[in-house]
Give the backbone structure.
Amino acid sequence: MKKFNSAIPTLSLILISFLSTYTQAQNTIPKVESLLAKMTIEEKIGQLNLVTPGGGIATGSVVSSNVEEKIKAGQVGGLFGIAGPERIKTTQDFAVKNTRLGIPLIFGSDIIHGYKTTFPIPLGLSASWDMELLKRTAQIAALEATADGINWNFSPMVDIARDPRWGRIAEGAGEDPYLGAAIAKAMVTGYQGDDLTAINTMMACVKHIALYGAAEGGRDYNSVDMSKIKMYNEYLPPYKAAIDAGVGSIMTSFNDIDGVPASGNKWLLTDLLRNQWNFKGFVVSDYTSVNEMIAHGMGDLQAVSALALKAGLDMDMVGEGFLTTLKKSLNEGKITEAEITMACRRVLEAKYKLGLFEDPYRYIDKKRPAKDILRPGNRKIAREAAKKSFVLLKKHNNTLPLKKDANIALIGDLANDKSNMLGTWAPTGDFKLSIPILEGFKNVAPNAKITYAKGANITNDSVMAKNVNVFGRTVVIDERSPEVMLKEAIEVAQKADVVVAVVGEAKEMTGESSSRTEIQIPASQKKLIRALVATGKPVVLVLMSGRPLVIEEEMNLPVSILQVWFPGVEAGNAIADVIFGDYNPSGKLTATWPVNVGQIPIYHSVKNTGRPQPTETFLKFKSNYLDAPNAPLLPFGFGLSYTEFEYSDVKVTTSEINQNEGLTVRVTLKNTGNYDGEEVVQLYLRDVVRSITPPMRQLKGFQKVFLKKGETKIVSIELKPEDLKFYNSNLDFVAEPGEFEVFVGTNSNATLKAIFTLK
Ligand code: BGC
């Protein structure tokens, strides 16, 4: 018999459950406790039910039914997917005025990169390496969402992703746990502020615990199997950082871990989250992920719902397994009332922390949307965030920046488009508000001569077009033939001084359920690029994508390349700011770009192996490929500037430190080029010898600095004692004595080195 089906809990289980309930109830909230004392089992179970009435953009394949009746019957704890003070007020009334205890609802939403003021996709935002800016975007998202009555946000998504085939790499901060942890902290503190009851802050929900980004083969929702050492050292730090920053809630992931799906995984939800990390908030499932444990092979709905509750899951998103089976399981002795009460307590505590018991209508104010949503200042930050997210991948012949009176051929379907600019996971945004690139060019360079031609469809593959047009038509296959469009573009190019071709993915080529096995620029556009280059005109590629792409061929062409991700509502203006030199690009890649798909998974903090490849040349019996290099096309941390930076003189303040001491690393940075600019100074650490095989280098510090042209600065980066630590075979977080190498530079290939010893 499976563990979760056992009919009568043994005495020891009762004791353990009593003890853990007792210890966890230590810091209880009196208001919540007195409410719990009055609640029936049905009312408690009702609080564990999270529904979505549909009608907005679907984020899952089913929606909830009879929502109004269920709320009035006390069968709903929270709602997501609705917005606006009036609609939220009416819905809150159903709960507050029609149920016996009048417990308010919590209102959730997916505000992943901005509410109505849409910022760049998270992978793009992470490329800014600017924590204050990221925090500011989260504050604005909170200001706008709460103005529309929402008080709970399913963000930040902090899943480490080292497989660019996985479409949801777009939604996170890339491959690195150190940077990912810093971003998790910035986003959580941005959303939540220091007072969750304030009307312009909302509760964050870090997701998706855990390891969702490591789905096998990059196929969404696929299984994950990983050693604990890898988890603790490389995949868990961002979730933990969110918890340390006080995140109010956590969402489970769809995948299994050690053979047990996250939503029913007791090791994950209780041993790790509660006992090791001391998490005090509540845990919500992902969309129907409790029910999906049936397909995973964990039993029927009653069994998987009991498994989830016993594992430590508090709220059930959409699937209603909790609502429909927990009472039965209780009657059959498969779960305890204490377990239901504990889950309910955590949900009620969240409502209490948001101030909803004091005033269920505190986030509902009809005047706020007009006042707070899409404020000009908000859009200004969107433009700033977008231009700071762009990464200059290649410079050629000083083509960039362009002169503001240039004669430009602007080519590409994406160059005169609104529907793709917001990128994936922008369900609360409105693409009609976005600035197309053609418009942005005219705004920033009114004296330029700009001629537009489409040149090619985003893709000619009608099946792909159908698959990605799920949220509206973002790929439109032209009625004209590819040849006619190409000819028109070549003619336009021939009459111009310079060609700017905007190429790449449509927005839904990345995102949820958008994994790709080939991650090149679609063939239709590759052909267009080759034809434009063949005109002999200088060519700038503005590259749009939600993931690292395979662009070896394009990197070898005589072109300049600016990676712009999906820039959000201010897309056109921000791109024009950079193309015309009002802003000097400063973004750096946060996920490695492979030479080809065969190199995946790919990331910078790799281990040496016992048979490292000494040079780039193939050697038999070394760890290398017959047909491709080990090195990526573009390393983690890579990004150029219109200016040049020179690094020299890396020093550590002391060559020997004791346990629990830190030290400072200094480097001299000079702007040797012709433009003012910002540089992200990066520090990588190598623990030369340790008890588990060390990565060759790991990011352990960074600083974004501005230097005027010709200016020199000494940049100091602190290494804290915990930066030297890692989880050893016993999963103890330790620093082991010995030599450490510090590399400082402009990307993860940095070569300037200093050495110190830990005693
Ligand atoms: C996604 C989550 C999201 C949820 C609610 C799911 O499909 O995996 O990230 O928060 O839907 O919209």
Observations:
- The CA atoms of residues 272 and 733 lie 14 Å apart.
- The first strand starts at residue 49 and ends at 51.
- Residues 1-25 have pLDDT under 50 and may be disordered.
